[in-house]
TrEMBL record:
Residues 134-213, 226-314 form the Cyclin-like domain. This is Cyclin-A3-2. GO terms for biological process: cell division. The keyword Metal-binding does not apply. The lineage of its organism: Eukaryota, Viridiplantae, Streptophyta, Embryophyta, Tracheophyta. Pfam families: Cyclin_C, Cyclin_N. Keywords: Cell cycle, Cell division, Cyclin.
Amino acid sequence: MSHKQINAQGQRQDAHTAELMEIQHTLLVMQDNIKSTKIVVHQLSDLFLANIFNQKRETHKPKKSLTAPVTPTLESSSDIDARSDDPQMCGAYVSDIYEYLREIEVNPKQRPLHDYIEKVQKDVTASMRGVLVDWLVEIAEEYKLGSETLYLTVSYVDRFLSLKTVTMETLQLVGLSAMVIGSKYERYTRPPRVEEFGYTKQEVMEMEADILLALRFELGRPTINTFLRRFTRVAQEDFNVPHLELEPLCCYLSELSILDYENVKFLPSLVAASAVFLARFIVRPKQDPWNKMLEEYTKYKAADLQECVGIILDLYLSRRGRGLEAVRNKYKQHKFQCVATMHVSPELPVTF
């Protein structure tokens, strides 16, 4: 090979190496740009979402309500939510979530008639409904179904009875089928074995179909349990008692409330707030059971709760629902701190 050929080959290799280095440099620059773009996009996304929430809070005007809601203080709400270590509480946007839930719970399509026994039913009475719900509590306890399943079941029963007339003999089948639907909706609970209650699978399936068609498959809705967790946490803020005592007491009062037909007319959030009010009164009878923070979070004043609190107190003292012992026996257990045995004054506080 001549000297000129060697030089020419060396120049080509140098040019090729330089070209490779230039391509490598270009790829590195592109990679840095991509990273920078990702960072900017994420920053813009965060700013965009923040602006959406800020605009929503600024432009939102509270609707008129018969319960005279109290305007919340956003600063204190943010503080209490920010202090939560529970990621399921969704502190960053919990206010928007509960605002949405409050809108859903007043939807008339998902609300039972407050007087369906008088207007729709012919054989079924309020006392029969109480016996049915008491039996459903027993079934839920036997099969270890959650409180949410129980509340959904009672909701399905009330909504179905608001639309369809049933006989006395069919009422228990309606309740059992509603519980099967609630168990399936919750998914993590096993439905009761229907054969143990004298019904065939075919009978229950047919009743399930009737209920689902009547409810138009609209099964998801806020229940008392939906609001109770948050309200209980707020109630604990100025209360120097163990959370493990106040929470089961609120749950007990809430489950007592579903026994009485008169409570069908109340919104789930109002019943949850009433349970918290009465629980605080039972634990600390000399302390005001309601305060500004609870008004802010529940959107109810003490006067809005008076009727519902009175009904639940009568249930607690067995002045109502006498003979319905499933809920009472359930909360006499040590795992619920025996809250059903706590003493309470027979008279409501003068807060009202």
